Amino acid sequence: NALGRTVLATPDLTVNPQVRALWTTSLMVANAVVVLFVVAAGFVVASRESLQTRVALKAILPRLVLGPVLANVSLLLCAKAIETTNALTAAVAGQDVDGPAAAQAIVTAIDATAYGNSFLLVLLVLGVVVMTLVVLVTFILRIAVLTVVIGLAPLALLCHCLPQTEAVAFTWWRCLGGMLAIQFTQAVVLL
User: Fold this and answer.
1) Is the CA virtual torsion 142, 84, 148, 160 positive or negative?
2) What is the pLDDT of residues 110-164, one digit of tens each?
3) What is the pLDDT of residues 115-127, one digit of tens each?
4) SS3 content of the chain, % helix, strand, coil (to 5)
5) Residue 110: its pLDDT value, please?
6) From CA 45, how far away is CA 39, in angstroms rounded?
7) What angle do CA 30, 174, 95 make, to 5 degrees?
8) Per-position DSSP letters for 22-73, written without gaps between them
9) pTM for this structure?
């Protein structure tokens, strides 16, 4: 039953009070650190043609605006990403997949093997049970990692301010995309 209700959707963690508290703390730190990014950007621009030749003022100014804006709207971005992934998963998996009915079929198959003597059927059912447990553990880990990713969103997205720190922001985007892609992939495999 847990598999049928959870694996095909990600709960909207952005409304969870603990996740919101973690995100708010991260946002306050990110808004305070903006000044350090401005100072670092000034150093990068001032060192042009002496320490580096790649980054000029016209490349830094849009970044100094984009980073704080993304940090402050990151909770909304995460909520919309989760909503979009849930809608995409529902569209691909369709309404024909009934999770509780699939769970009931597994339980029925397990009950049937208790009264039968088919060794291969017992192995098959055991494999299904193990795979179900793996999917449930993956779901729990996915939700835990997604909670951390949402909580650290403001700090990570603030790293778009400088080319030297942008790799951190790109890593955050890959983590968010990976956690949501796991849901979609599991839905396709379950289908």
Assistant:
1) positive
2) 676 666 667 777 787 788 788 878 888 888 899 999 999 999 999 999 999 888 8
3) 666 777 778 778 8
4) 85, 0, 15
5) 67
6) 10
7) 115
8) HHHHHHHHHHHHHHHHHHHHHHHHHTBTTTBSS--HHHHHHHHHHHHHHHHT
9) 0.77
